[in-house]
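ok posting inputs for the 6-O-phosphono-alpha-D-fructofuranose job
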Amino acid sequence: MTVTTQNEKLVTLEEYVIEAQAQFPKATGEMTQLLMDITLGAKIIAREINRSVLKDINSAETITEPHSFKRARLEQFAKEQMYYALNRSNEVCLMITDDMAEPEMLNEGTGKYIVVLDPLDGTSNIAFNGAVATTFSIYRRKTHPESVIDPTEALRSGNEQVVGGYVLYGSSIMLVFTAEGMGVSFFTLDPAIGEFCLSNENVSVPEFKSNFSINTSFYELWSEVDQGFFDYLTGNDNLAGKAYSLRYGGSVVSDVHRILMEGGLFGYPPNSLNPRGKLHLMYKCNPLAFIMEKAGGVATNGDVRLLDIRPGKIHYQTPVFMGSVKNMQEYSDFRTNFEDKK
Ligand code: P6P
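and the output
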């Protein structure tokens, strides 16, 4: 009797990275273990976010704790889980997160890898069950792994990332990452088995979509060229011949993930409140830029590739524009023509 199983072959993250390890000489066993440790931290964070939401849903009062306290509690919890995860590997010598004044040494400053991460971005969305995310970049240190790391070694351009990724805690829990020599792969957490399972590989961003994701409430604070570009996008003299759709969720990872899936342009232009831009290069923009470029997209600060920028400090902020190659070319052409007409 032939038994046919309904289950398509599930490929877990561990199976996927072990197979990739065999193909890519630079993908070491320690790297695989580090990625598994990070994703374990993410699973624990996902459980806490879910508990936090359920507590509100099931609570007698409307809000069991003030939103600001919940945000702070979840952010601290997420940072602790990532700290434990990175310490477990014994291969991480330096950790940088969004709330650290200075890089933190792990493993007494010895180990092969430097990890830069935002343990939980977009927590202002928690109040209405919006998407939040963990972003991470892994760098291989240049100095001997048994020597004590000099924290300034962490100031690297995004070009030097060995792995860049994020975990998006949305309607499903999704891990997206890329690594040197690899494409972009999506893994969705199957809660029934507690594993991230391959859902998309070698993802490529569509060449064009008449979509943009920009917080237009800052319009009056933008430069003339960015105001002009917004007017152009919402007019009909653009690539689509009609006003583009605006989609902005206030969570950079969720907004960029949508662009990665359906195409378009994400932007956080500089404004008079944030003249150097708001988003942080090392732990928000670089993992996303690495993924966007590996998927065939483009990521700049309006002038140069984000991945080429060498930050002078760990909390370096930057203007951000990233997305489909034709949408980004449209922005670049607009800026060039705008300057020429002046
Ligand atoms: P604004 C979330 O706090 C965040 O860091 C990013 O995820 C998001 O893109 C940005 O800030 C939103 O900023 O000024 O549009 O509210």
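notes: The first strand starts at residue 92 and ends at 97. Residues 112 and 188 are 28 Å apart (CA to CA).
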